[in-house]
């Protein structure tokens, strides 16, 4: 089994910066530390309300990253225009609601109007496209039909079950994610990523699913960094992929 890559989501460094309206801590500096500590890529979510990452962060980061940028964004014309200017290696399309604390569910790629054209515009500019979806076979079928390059399976329900110590739900969710990953691999050349709500305590069961290419992790890793420093937090998260506790039966 190949260990998945770690993509670090650095949005919460910007959250901390914006809380004071100053220019530190700098998310770009944070991203460079993560890369040096072993992150394979940097994920950042330019939200429509700009609550953490701002346009200037995206443009500067595009110049300075050594690995690759995974720009999370909503399916809007404004975001398409920005992505076409920035040309990140990857765009991950996510649903967005103004009131949510974080991305609450997967994108419903079965029912989005004009979606194929949106994806093609990105791909024609040399950007690879990932779709953040629930581990649901209908969504995967649609992602294949749309010609996406990758899917990112939403692990939020699993992560929530681990916080509640609900073993029945944990087992059920791991099974769903395993089935979704196996289905995508058997039926397409999609890369299969996963993320949301992953922590050093719950990541091993997901990291050890066959064929998961990359895990995108933000909040828990930045929270670890408050106590252990960012470099150590990246290393500790990677170690937890294999050494973390397995919380499924
Ligand atoms: N992947 C996607 C598509 C997300 O929207 C987020 C949250 O911004 C993450 C991964 C990271 O989630 P978390 O911050 O809970 O680790």
UniProtKB/TrEMBL annotation:
Cytoplasm is among the record's keywords: yes
Catalytic reaction equation(s): 3-amino-2-oxopropyl phosphate + 1-deoxy-D-xylulose 5-phosphate = pyridoxine 5'-phosphate + phosphate + 2 H2O + H(+)
GO molecular function terms noted in the UniProt entry: pyridoxine 5'-phosphate synthase activity
GO CC terms of this entry: cytosol
Family matches, as Pfam families: PdxJ
Keywords assigned: Cytoplasm, Pyridoxine biosynthesis, Transferase
Site feature: Transition state stabilizer: 152
Gene Ontology biological process terms from the UniProt entry: pyridoxine biosynthetic process
Active site per database record: 45, 72, 196
Listed CDD domains: PNPsynthase
HAMAP family in UniProt: PdxJ (MF_00279)
Family note: Belongs to the PNP synthase family.
Function: Catalyzes the complicated ring closure reaction between the two acyclic compounds 1-deoxy-D-xylulose-5-phosphate (DXP) and 3-amino-2-oxopropyl phosphate (1-amino-acetone-3-phosphate or AAP) to form pyridoxine 5'-phosphate (PNP) and inorganic phosphate.
Name of protein: Pyridoxine 5'-phosphate synthase
Source organism of this protein record: Moraxella catarrhalis
Gene expressing this chain: pdxJ
């Amino acid at each position: 089994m190949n260990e998945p890559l770690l993509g670090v989501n650095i949005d919460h460094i910007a959250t901390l910066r914006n809380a004071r309206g100053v220019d530190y801590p700098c998310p770009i500096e944070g991203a460079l530390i993560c890369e040096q500590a072993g992150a394979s890529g940097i994920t950042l979510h330019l939200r429509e309300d700009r609550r953490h990452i701002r346009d200037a962060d995206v443009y500067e980061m595009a110049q300075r990253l050594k690995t690759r940028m995974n720009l999370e964004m909503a399916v809007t014309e404004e975001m398409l225009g920005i992505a076409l200017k920035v040309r990140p290696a990857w765009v991950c399309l996510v649903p967005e609601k103004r009131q949510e604390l974080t991305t609450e569910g997967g994108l419903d790629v079965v029912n989005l109007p004009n979606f194929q054209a949106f994806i093609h515009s990105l791909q024609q500019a040399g950007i690879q496209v990932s779709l953040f979806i629930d581990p649901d076979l209908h969504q995967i079928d649609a992602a294949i039909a749309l010609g996406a390059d990758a899917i990112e399976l939403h692990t939020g329900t699993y992560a929530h079950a681990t916080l509640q110590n609900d073993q029945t739900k944990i087992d059920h969710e791991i099974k769903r994610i395993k089935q979704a990953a196996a289905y995508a691999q058997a039926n397409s050349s999609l890369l299969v990523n996963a993320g949301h709500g992953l922590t050093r305590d719950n990541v091993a069961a997901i990291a050890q699913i066959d064929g998961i290419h990359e895990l995108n992790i933000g909040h828990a890793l930045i929270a670890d960094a408050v106590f252990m420093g960012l470099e150590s937090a990246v290393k500790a998260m990677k170690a937890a992929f294999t050494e973390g506790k397995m919380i499924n039966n």
